[in-house]
Amino acid sequence: MATRLGRLARLAVAIALIAVLSGCAASGNPLASSGSDAGFWLGLWQGFISPVTFIVSLFNDSVGIYEVRNNGTWYDFGFMLGVSTVFGSVLGGSSAARSARAHHE
Fold it and tell me: Using one digit for the tens of pLDDT, what is the confidence trace for 36-51?
């Protein structure tokens, strides 16, 4: 019973987190027509929100995952760092916790 309750609590937290992060999703591409290029920090931020942005981009053609106007290597580095941080913590954290629990039992 406690395990099922824990699963439901984790599911509720995950749904709430997705709902909160959906407010951070990119909406269009305002820099596409301006003269400034996206750099490391914007790449990092867009890497963090890429899972939410991907879902939004499936339903909205004006939303893109990757910045069109960027300064190249530093934007790419920030974007990949953000993506790997998000997916590393989501996917790697659960398997690490599971193996740690199995080791202690």
Answer: 777 888 888 888 888 8
